[in-house]
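[Automated response] Your request has been received and processed.

Submitted sequence:
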Amino acid sequence: MNAEQLQLIAQSAWQALPTLLAAAPITLGYALASMVLGLPLALLVALLRLSPVTPLRFLSSLYVSFIRGTPLLVQIFVIYYGLPSFGVTLSPLLGGVLALTLNAAAYLSETMRASILSVPRGQREAALSLGLTPRQTMRLVVLPQAARVALPSLSNTLIGLVKDTSLVSVITVVELLRSAQLVIARTFEPFGPYLAAALIYWLISSVLELAQRRLEARLSRQG
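Generated structure:
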């Protein structure tokens, strides 16, 4: 690769940068929306997997197994292109968020379930002996401790979601990767825009990782 080629790549990356930066909030918004919506669903699934009711445990386990055992790209296709066969048509925005939410919830539920189980049984028994109901024990004693244990994995899931948003480009969502593809369609120079998009993904992930470390350090001082 000579100096002229390097200059061409740098120039194409620089020219693509405004378009890509404008799409970056869309990528981050998809990740945050999927995380916010996925957390309560993940908690519900985790509690169902710990339920003494066998059908509830089976159904929640089946959901987690199916989501974790199939590619996210296939899940996006099923939701966006498959649901219209049953009369359910979703916009690219809703279809993408729904697919990412369902996928994230399955993985987050395993993190939450393990975190809940990590809380010593003696603390639950002590809370119950003090007159707390099982629901109060879970809400006031178990979940706060489980949340601290789960924090690193939850943060890693959010970082993973930022990268997974690139897959919704297949349903015409104009996020970061799709924006790079549109730039390439105009300039016919792929390396620069793709490299610029990769750097933006890396920058977003690095900022989120830094925020995760600071939050963990603050929680450690409080603990």
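Summary generated for your ticket: The CA atoms of residues 180 and 194 lie 6 Å apart. The mean pLDDT is 90.
If you did not submit this request, please reply to this message.
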